[in-house]
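Worked example 3. Consider a protein that binds protoporphyrin IX containing FE.
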Amino acid sequence: MRDLPFPPLPPADPQHGHLGQLRADRLGFLTETAHTYGDVVQIHFGEAVSYLVNRPDLIEKVLLHTNTHFIKGYSDDPILRTLLGNGLLNSEGSFWLRQRRLIQPTFHRNRIASYQQIMVDYTERALSEWRDGQRLELHGVLMQLTLEIVAKALFGEDLRDKSQGIGEALTAALKAFFDRDEEDDGELPEGFLKAVASLDAVVYELIERRRSQPTSQSDLISVLLGARDDEGQTMTDQQLRDEVMTLLLAGHETTANALSWAWLLISQHPAVWEGMHREAKALAQPLQAAELSQLSCCESVLKEAMRLYPPVWAFSRVAKEDLELGGFALPAGTGVLLSQWVTHRDPRYFPEPLAFRPERWQAEGSWPRHAYFPFGGGPRLCIGNNFAMLEGTLISARIAREWRLRWTGEEVTPLPAITLRPFPGVWVTLERVGA
Ligand code: HEM
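Given these inputs, the predicted complex is written out as structure tokens:
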């Protein structure tokens, strides 16, 4: 390690590193940096050093060795820590492993198939309010729908009258993340703390209700309430809150973003819509589990949309010890930044990377495995990936069956907060095409 070189360092401010460039344009700066300086590049967040890694085999190495050579290091982030606490996304080591084993059965293939009816029913209900010719902000609608689905599927709770409030609180919380000053160690903004308090109130109410009215069903809150550690202790209320909050938030915002970007692209590519419509129309109504394999066109559209607009656009790890990565020295404590936005748009893996081409998925497997990683990988792979793909495909198919969405032309830009949101929203006009 002593003789290994360090990766290239793009021109940086001695005190602030690359924070100025990142603040001006996070996505553009990272893309440009990888393009100009290569597959492993130093990025300085003030004094903290990270390596941006844009080579699939190295991305794979980092993901597969998370837990052994790397940690996530997320709980050092005051915003993530306050919002999600020590839930599954943030926790580390043996504690994480125990919680993951507890929660994993809820995401078993058979259980996910059993959520399909909930996904279809809630989608039917949401779409029954749509009117021909109506102007609609799609992202807000999808945020509510995906929240209602995850709450019902995982926790057995109907959150329909609360979903709008939760959406607003989450938007406020993510805005604080986007607006924050990375060099400011001071207090968290008041708007953020208020948003978290209102989300807390919803989550604690869910937990309290299940505690006072136990059900025979094996919903996730009951599973968490019944869990005992090696000493026979139950989970603290704080830990229950952290797990429920993590699943509720991680389990809907990302899927809503994926679908919003997908439908913005579909509305701009009429031939893609035609293919989805034909596929969805050929199916029985309502959609049945057995028919999902017949939705390959709708599925490819979702995958291609997540290539161009990955709902999680970047995430990081921290080296636990001195390591070598791609021939460079990676000292303990250095961060590693993996960016789906950058890698998914790399022309070496995806020819004409900016073109929206769902048909490229017919050649799936012709690019290196971790050139595409919307759900991460390795032991910390998204626990909800199959849930999200099923949900996203079903919702898309149901929309395409009956509706054509016309984009109003109002500009949409990707807002890279924790997730990649379409800002200020996706405005469309609804056109019914007959079921
Ligand atoms: C399109 C939708 C989704 C995308 C793009 C997505 C993306 C991701 C990514 C990239 C990670 C890994 C982060 C890292 O390694 O640092 C992750 C982890 C996670 N996701 Fe998802 N996710 C989606 C849907 C869901 C759903 C539906 C759920 C739950 C119902 C969920 C729950 C989680 C949890 C709990 C983790 C942490 C897992 C662990 O560390 O053990 N996600 N997700």
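Take a moment to read the result before moving on. The longest helix spans residues 190-212. The chain has 17 helices and twelve strands.
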